[in-house]
């Protein structure tokens, strides 16, 4: 293992400017709980479809807890990531492992399990004492990056490890980088704070771990392809972009007063980056907004009733949809986004699922249709197919 994967943060004498969170008071609209009629019928049908079109569970025998799934289908193989606790049945980063699993689409019994990092491992000559959110992103036709959060020397970092598809081999573990302006630091809590401070970019309160959202969308800028995602730590959430999935550049954060907390779903269509984020635990709403990439302005937010969970966007047949948890983590809601007027976005369905459905992640599977991965009671990483067209 290379011992030079870490770098020193840029030294700055500038103080980090802090933003206080508060409830949104000037919303463009509200999308609430809806029941009865077609929404209820579609919700019931969706819950039944997810149960009946079960593909497989991806946890490993002996796992005591599993959570936060990401998957991709590449050349008829499913690749799935998540983190697992093999020691005791709780979500405790001191006992967790970052994992990649893959299997042929047509033979889910032939799973291969690869553990990337476990609390207690050494990396770059330093001891890892916590492991958290684990995702994957496809870099090119023959490479995916497995990416995860881990704490080293009391500082949370984002790590990555390339996986070569043709040889099914893992590469060297590296540290992602965070860029703001011309400052590039390690993608860590201290690195983010240093880069933001030097560029006089204000920041909401950061605490606990840090994360990068798993859904990628892209935009060509000055002849180069940039991949967009969301980043978060505590109450701080922002848009980031990258050309290589290693160095991530700060783009923007909502410029209106809000109560954001943790995961922020993003998706770029045209010159807009659509953005949905959960808020504080005592709030009844997350908020939906959009950032205009050409003139660097934010749209007035729309409040969306949500139980404060991780959400996901999917582009399907030219339209954008949001999957979220409107009531609790046993419910899935699907909203069709109106790109011209977010307040006119409409509820497609709200479903009470047959099991818990923590943190749904939606991706193309086969036949130009979709599948959804999710966590069941932090005991199963489950994949099920779905035909979104049936509900439109």
Plain-language structure description:
The chain has 392 residues and is mainly beta. The chain has a domain at 61-175. It is 7% helix and 52% strand. The chain has two helices and 33 strands. The protein has helices spanning 37-52, 189-198, and strands spanning 18-19, 29-31, 54-57, 65-74, 77-85, 96-104, 112-118, 122-123, 126-140, 143-152, 155-164, 169-170, 174-175, 177-180, 183-186, 203-204, 211-212, 217-221, 224-233, 236-242, 247-252, 260-269, 272-279, 285-292, 297-298, 302-305, 312-316, 319-324, 331-336, 346-352, 358-364, 370-376, 380-386. The strands form seven sheets. Strands 14, 15, 17, 18, 19, 20 and 21 form a seven-stranded mixed beta sheet that branches. The mean pLDDT is 98.
Shape: globular
N/C terminus separation: 50 Å
* Structure class: mainly beta
> Into which percentage range does the β-strand content fall?
over 45%
Q: Which value, in Å, is the CA radius of gyration?
A: 20 Å
Strand tally is 33
Could you list the spans in which at least 5 consecutive residues all have pLDDT below 50?
none
Proportion in helices: under 10%
